[in-house]
Design goal:
Number of helices: 14
Low-confidence stretches: none
CATH class of the largest domain: Alpha Beta
Radius of gyration: 24 Å
Mean pLDDT: 95
Strand content: 15-25%
Order of helices and strands: HHHHEEEHEHEHEHEEHEHHEEEHEHEEHE
Structural class: alpha/beta
Number of strands: 16
Distance between the termini: 40 Å
Strand order of the largest sheet: 10-11-12-9-8-13-14
Helix content: 25-40%
CATH topology of the largest domain: Aldehyde Dehydrogenase, Chain A, domain 1
CATH superfamily of the largest domain: Aldehyde Dehydrogenase, Chain A, domain 1
Bound molecules: nicotinamide-adenine-dinucleotide
CATH architecture of the largest domain: 3-Layer(aba) Sandwich
Shape: globular
Length: about 450
């Protein structure tokens, strides 16, 4: 098994030389990454399509990362500025001679471990790691067998491995990599593997950011605008064939709403026709996940109340959207993250019972409510805990400059723009005595 010590040491030496501190150098690394993306856009788009069958017209990982780059280049002069504090006059300080500062400093060598379903956009955090003055080792998912080698092949054409390196591999290689000491690890994936990552990080007291998944609930109130429900569920379940961390995982509604929810979703998916005939529609990532999803359909005690157009096809790894009615929270469909085009509906007696169910289960990455009731919206947001909430839609709380991340079992730490920059930064408090008028600007 290959050892990663030499690579990590090389990056650490580069960091320790102070070469990553220079602001112009940080910007150059980001510009170089932009060049890499622009010059290889077609090859990257094609690789992602080959692996996930997600067409760039549906969502472009490259364009989204370029957006993050523009935002960072526009704002990083401000982000890296040390803050000067007003010195109080008290027993400890004298404003005539004492200066108080908060100086952002990079952490060092950052490891980013990506999932297969967002091979590049999850790695847009590496832009923030560069902006903060770190070096980066990226480990793409082995479940993207076209993207991972392509990216590992492109990266050295643009970067010396002392500043940015891509390491390919699955579990054995990642296990070996995790023996090294990093200064921060960003892992995106599932909670069981996150525990392995955190245990390895603990040996070196390395801080971690964990971007995980979970069972994202949807409550449909009797006041809900059902056209919004149709739009929200179709959008979430069609995108990546439901293989997204913020996908709607299960529906809770009262008995009165059940027939309305079923007929609304039935009409919405019927209108799409046979999705197996749409080439840009993502397929299940691999045979293991295909079998896992078929196993869920076999083992559930729930009843299929609707199956969308198209036939299940093992060779093409296509599963049409399935809507099921499930009686008990013990059912397998209510136990593990579905991550596919299957949606269970569970009847609850009331809104309070729905809140109770959500509160007593692991904190999800996202929670959704469809309602026209303001008071209920307030209670849902205040009384349940989740990474984020969209009201009357799905997945919409993940843009607009808002931070993105989970809580509890769905993760820790926040991504996007300045939030990710702060994650890869230590803000160091400084007191300078004797009126030095020190300047710490990069
Ligand atoms: P995964 O955990 O199987 O794999 C993610 C990464 O972890 C891969 O690079 C893989 O090589 C590595 N890995 C897997 N097993 C390992 C082990 N035993 N030791 C060390 N490394 C290991 O996750 P996945 O199947 O790629 O992605 C699906 C999960 O990711 C879902 O739970 C989904 O909700 C979550 N996800 C979360 C986000 C987010 O931003 N919160 C985004 C995308 C996916």
């Amino acid at each position: 098994m290959v050892s990663y010590s030499a690579l990590v040491n090389k990056q650490r030496e580069f960091y320790l030389s102070g070469a990553t501190l220079d602001l112009a150098g940080r910007k150059k690394r980001i510009e170089t990454f932009k060049k890499l993306l622009v010059e290889n856009k077609k090859a990257i788009d094609d690789a992602i399509f080959a692996d996930i069958r997600r067409h760039p017209t549906v969502m472009s990982d490259v364009d989204m990362t370029l957006g993050e780059i523009e935002l960072t280049l526009k704002n990083m002069d401000e982000w890296v500025k040390p803050k000067k504090f007003v010195t109080p006059k008290d027993a400890q300080y004298d404003p005539a001679s004492d200066e108080l500062h908060l100086v952002p400093e990079p952490l060092g060598v950052v490891l980013i471990i990506s999932p297969w379903n967002a091979p590049l956009i999850c790695s847009s955090a590496l832009i923030q790691a560069f902006a903060a003055g770190n070096t980066v080792i990226l480990k793409p998912s082995e479940l993207d067998p076209t993207f991972a080698p392509l990216f590992a092949n492109i990266a050295p054409k643009y970067f010396d491995e002392k500043e940015f390196a891509v390491v390919e591999g699955g579990i054995p290689e990642t296990t070996e990599l995790l023996k090294e000491r990093f200064d921060h690890i960003l892992y995106t994936g599932c909670p069981p593997v996150a525990k392995i990552i955190m245990t390895a990080a603990a040996k070196h007291l390395t801080p971690v950011t964990l971007e995980l998944g979970g069972k994202n609930p949807v409550f449909v109130d009797e006041s809900a605008d059902l056209s919004l429900l149709a739009k929200g569920i179709v959008g979430a379940k069609i995108f990546n064939a439901g293989q997204a961390c913020i996908c709607t995982d299960y529906i809770l509604c009262t008995p009165a709403m059940k027939p309305k929810v079923i007929s609304t979703l039935k009409a919405a998916f019927d209108a799409l026709g046979d999705m197996s005939k749409v080439p840009a529609n993502a397929r299940i990532i691999n045979d293991r996940h295909f079998k896992r999803l078929m196993g869920l359909l076999k083992d559930t005690k729930g009843k299929v109340v609707y199956k969308a157009g198209g036939e299940t096809d093992e060779k093409d790894r296509f599963i049409p959207f399935h809507l099921l009615e499930v009686d008990s929270a013990d059912d397998i469909l209510l136990q593990e993250e579905i991550f596919g085009p299957i949606l269970p509906v569970m009847i609850v007696p009331s809104f309070d019972a729905a809140l109770n169910h959500i509160k007593r289960n692991e904190k999800p990455l996202a929670a959704y409510i469809f309602t026209e009731n303001k008071e209920q919206t307030k209670r849902f947001v205040r009384e349940t805990s989740s990474g984020g909430v969209t009201v009357n839609g799905s997945c919409a709380h993940t843009g607009g400059g808002l931070p993105f991340g989970g809580v509890g079992n769905s993760g820790m730490g926040r991504l996007m723009g300045k939030y990710a920059f702060d994650m890869f930064t230590h803000e160091k408090p400084i007191c300078v005595r004797n009126s030095l008028k020190a300047d710490f600007a990069y």
